[in-house]
């Protein structure tokens, strides 16, 4: 017996057609307290930029919000801004869910009470859990809220799961999408192949979280033989921390990808663009230092644009790594076509109004 209403036809269609879903950051004051004005401004920015949803309470929002009583307030602010915007297009509200089954189901109930459509379920931080225990946890959450699966890279707290795990995962009623972010082509293919072999393959939308391969993920048609017949599946959109900045350009990129896919004419220039986006992500996510400055890198761009008042994180030890600011300078200089600073500068004062 599920506790939620199914996605509306319009939202389900948008999810499967593919949309840009930024991973929503957390706006703090210098005292490391919630900056409500700028928190709301970020949500307004993502809607104005044309995104098809937001993911709140996820890694980019900082998992520590749960330790300081900000999980529900931050989710509520985003939901309120979406409600006030009265958008004429479907807009997906996705809540980050993590922790043990007890914690995760409690967070799922909070998300449902605030009107969230889907829960993005992290499987990190559960050391020693078997794949069977993970699957039982997903089933419990899916009884409360539709589930967006999440394959997180091991270098930032995830773990490697088997093909058999994802095959069972895809069969769970209530799983509506999977975000693949292992930063690994083999593991990404495991998920796509598993979904293609499931009877629910047409009920599950695939999204990239592979910030190191965004464009190629979106352009690729995956094809597998299932019972002697070819089955195809695409990664239709992205839910990305990378898309928490320069979001206007991300929306334009996805639309161009859709047009290229429809025309079936993929030029070699797309490979060049993929490299440029990956290079920019290296600076943003601080790959040179094992992703240590990934949240601060997002904050730095939003700070430069005037959306944030600083790059403060709840964890005082989180900040830019040595040389990371200079790397971001290089990205701005070398790839101005990937940034949306002009768009932000025209509207930021409006977004910051109470």
What does this protein structure show overall?
The chain has 354 residues and is α/β, with parallel strands linked by helices. Helix content is 44%, strand content 15%. Strands 1, 2, 3, 4, 5, 6, 7, 8 and 9 form a 9-stranded mixed sheet that branches. Strand 2, helix 3 (71-85) and strand 3 form a beta-alpha-beta unit. Helix 2 (36-48) crosses helix 13.
Characteristic key phrases:
354 residues, alpha/beta, 9-stranded mixed β-sheet, 9 strands, globular
Query: Count of helices?
Result: 13
Average pLDDT number: 95
Overall outline: globular
Q: Unreliable stretches, pLDDT < 50, 5 or more residues?
A: none
Q: Which structural class matches the secondary elements?
A: alpha/beta
**Beta-strand content:** 5-15%
Span of the ends, CA to CA: 41 Å
Q: In percent, how helical is the residue content?
A: 40-55%
User: Largest beta sheet, briefly?
Assistant: 9 strands, mixed
Order of helices and strands: HEHEHEHEHEHEHEHEEHHHHH
Q: What is the number of strand segments?
A: 9
Gyration radius, rounded: 19 Å
């Amino acid at each position: 017996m599920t506790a939620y209403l199914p996605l509306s036809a319009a939202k389900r269609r948008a999810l499967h057609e593919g949309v840009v879903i930024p991973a929503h950051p957390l706006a703090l004051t210098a005292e490391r307290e919630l900056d409500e004005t700028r928190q709301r401004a970020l949500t307004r920015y993502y809607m104005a930029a044309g995104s098809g949803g937001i993911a709140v309470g996820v890694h980019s929002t900082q998992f520590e919000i749960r330790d300081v009583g900000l999980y529900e307030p931050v989710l509520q602010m985003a939901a309120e801004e979406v409600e006030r915007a009265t958008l004429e297009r479907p807009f997906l509200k996705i809540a980050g869910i993590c922790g043990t089954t007890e914690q995760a189901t409690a967070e799922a109930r909070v998300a449902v009470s605030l009107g969230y459509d889907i829960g993005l379920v992290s499987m990190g931080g559960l050391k020693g859990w078997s794949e069977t225990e993970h699957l039982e946890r997903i089933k419990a959450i899916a009884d409360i809220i539709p589930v967006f699966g999440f394959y997180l890279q091991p270098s930032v707290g995830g773990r490697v799961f088997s093909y058999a795990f994802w095959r069972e995962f895809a069969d769970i009623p209530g799983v509506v999408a999977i975000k693949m972010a292992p930063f690994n082509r083999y593991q990404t293919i495991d998920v796509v192949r598993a979904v293609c072999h499931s009877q629910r393959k047409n009920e599950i939308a695939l999204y990239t979280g592979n910030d190191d391969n965004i464009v190629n993920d979106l352009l690729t048609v995956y094809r597998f033989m299932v019972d002697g017949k070819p089955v195809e599946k695409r990664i239709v959109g992205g839910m990305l921390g990378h898309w928490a900045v320069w979001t206007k350009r991300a929306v334009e990129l996805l639309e161009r990808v859709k047009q290229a896919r429809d025309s079936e004419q993929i030029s070699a220039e797309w490979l060049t663009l993929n490299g440029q986006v990956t290079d920019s992500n290296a600076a943003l996510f601080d790959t040179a230092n094992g992703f240590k400055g990934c949240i601060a890198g997002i904050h730095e761009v939003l700070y430069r644009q005037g959306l944030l008042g600083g790059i403060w994180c709840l964890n005082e030890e989180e900040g830019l790594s040595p040389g990371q600011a200079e790397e971001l300078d290089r990205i701005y200089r070398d790839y101005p076509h990937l940034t949306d600073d002009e768009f932000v500068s025209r509207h930021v004062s409006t977004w910051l109004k109470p």
